[in-house]
Fold this protein.
Amino acid sequence: MARTARSSKLETRTSRLKLAIGERHYVRIGKGISLGYRRGPEGSGNWEVRVFMPDGRYDFRALAKADDFIDANESDVLDYYAAQDRARQAAEDMRHPTAVSARRRKLTVKAAVDHYMDWYRHHGKSVKGMETTINAHILPAFGDMQVVDLDSQAIRKWHQDLSRMPARKRTSRYAKAQQFRDKPATEEEKRARKSTANRVLTVFKAILNKAYDHELVKDNQAWSKVKAFRRVEEPVIRFLTEAESTRLVNACAPDLRSLIHAALFTGARYSEITAMRAMDFNSNTGSIFINPGKSGRGRHVPLNREGMAFFSELAAGKKGSELLFIKSDGTPWGKNHHVRALKEACRNARIEPEITFHELRHTYASLLAQAGADLLVISKLLGHSDTRMTSKHYAHLCDRTLANAVRNLLPGFGHKPDRKVRPIA
């Protein structure tokens, strides 16, 4: 019988409930075998096993819930000691050659998804977003199929059908059915749907490729032959002019106005701004620290004089751990809490079509590009890992050679402007 591994952090429910939410904790229970525990924001934590496989990679498997709030039942709720036994048995099954062969023959897409998500929870960023994509588009179409039965034609048709489907709308959990927008009619709407279909196809391929890489299937030809739609990832980037930015700021309620100002001063994402705390502002260096978000890396963003004054005022009198941005009722900003107020502000500011909060990030980058900032500088300020995304969206604004050629070399054609026409300030 294997010796029981001890861990002061994981042995009792009392000690486990003191651990930080969202962090994984492992204890070695055998050669190449570790028992893991992770607790989410609600309910009991979960046990999992991490196994070092013969081919030199790590594999993961979910085991059961921990007995944090419910008594162990030796089935789907396990205490620390029973979880060790379950983990060792799972590791033996995972390493056994016949088990690998059987998984290859009987692996369903649903099982491939579960295998992928076991890995993704350790390496991915937005687990909830990934699960939404899978549950909405992949499992309904292929969940019960065995991976060996997939063929290129079926995947290609599914990909085409996705591009023709209307976009999903946010739907109440109590609604009887998922709600959808109108079918794509304009060229931009069709492009956007093809772009979405490509992203879903990328997720599906990632799931199947992970199964192939981990030798759960022998062949990857069925999905490797399916190609994404070409030239659909290049939307026209929308950004505000200086005058539009000023009108929008003036049309906002005070709490939303602070968020808008922060976006224009830093180019940060909504989630990054609403997480900023007083200690993130450094008045000595004139910069704000943006904590790791989508990119997985934090960054220091320098501020201009107006931005420094803005953040100095916000941070004044606050403890270092206090949020810089809260709503008028004193509660923190949550996901999508700004949407309705921003739409109303756009209407009042005569900004049509209405912008999203993310387009304030585009505004920040676009105004810098037009002022002469190079792409490397902009990419670092935005927190991009390299200049590819920055170049894709803003390179045309940085290229002054073309503009200078037209303005200096192209002749005039006799047009006289109407002096009565004035732009909206």
Remarks:
- Residues 242-400 form a domain with the hpI Integrase; Chain A fold (CATH 1.10.443.10).
- The chain has a mean pLDDT of 86.
- The first helix runs from residue 13 to 16.
- The two ends are 80 Å apart (CA to CA).
